[in-house]
Amino acid sequence: MTQTIINPTPKDYKSDVKPTWCPGCGDFGVLNATLRGLAGMKLAPDETVVVSGIGCSSRFPHFMRTFGFHSVHGRALPVAQGLKMSRPDLTVVAVGGDGDFFSIGAGHLVHAALRNIDITVVVMDNEIYGLTKGQTSPTSPHGHVTKSTPYGLMASQFNPIATALSLNVSFVARGYSAKPKDLAALIEQGIQHKGFAFIHALSPCPTFYHTFDAWDAAVTPISPEHNIQDRNQAMMLALNTEKQFTGVFFREERDTMDQAAQKLAERGNPFDVEQYIQRYA
Ligand code: SF4
Ligand code: MG
């Protein structure tokens, strides 16, 4: 039976498990924003599933009173997509970090974007591997010195928003964990969007890298003049290396995978075996 909450507050979506993150970790702000977002939408906790991979941020489902799935490193997206395909009635949110989504799980991001399955992804990006104590991740800047790159990172920096735009993701946004109200609004819009929604959440790891001060200076809200249907304009914002623009970069309504499957079914079987044999025999 659906567990409906009348007039829910963010607390109604919070479990009794105390977060194990370091004091000052940005992931607290993202958790706070997610709780607000779900409460804002009055989603039934037992019709909502939060799926994660492995990493500091992937502990997330334990701290929520929804259903949860703490899966395997880099594999939040296959689990989340399979879940949504088999239970389209559920709200599915996949969460994790930059290592999880842009390194070991990067291949899954490409195909999830192209399929446009109706799930929401929140990537907590701290530009470092926090759980394993501070090695470079795909979003670490070129030249960054860590224990794993004592002479500076030789690779170039992965750009999550530009990548999402080039993969034709149908909802692309960025928020900041220090602004949980704004991030909550983006999470709500992402869940409401029918299709694959990608939310890049800047989430500092003060233990091994950024402090909030470093990002406070760079974070800049996207102008209200920005046309969210203009992918080229969105790309210009994404490629700006001085500023970290926040807000909705791009949104497009297009068929989700189940809508496309529905249309296929309505047309009848499009694959004519006889014709195929005649043509290729
Ligand atoms: Fe957060 Fe960094 Fe601590 Fe992990 S190591 S809990 S990312 S502050
Ligand atoms: Mg990380």
UniProtKB/TrEMBL annotation:
The keyword Magnesium applies. Pfam families: PFO_beta_C (PF12367), TPP_enzyme_C (PF02775). GO terms for biological process: cellular respiration. Gene3D superfamilies: 3.40.50.970. Keywords: Iron, Iron-sulfur, Magnesium, Metal-binding, Oxidoreductase, Thiamine pyrophosphate. It comes from Ktedonospora formicarum. This is 2-oxoglutarate synthase. Residues 205-265 form the Pyruvate ferredoxin oxidoreductase beta subunit C-terminal domain. It comes from the Bacteria. The keyword Iron-sulfur applies. Residues 54-200 form the Thiamine pyrophosphate enzyme TPP-binding domain. Its cofactor is Mg(2+); [4Fe-4S] cluster; thiamine diphosphate. One of its GO terms (molecular function) is metal ion binding.
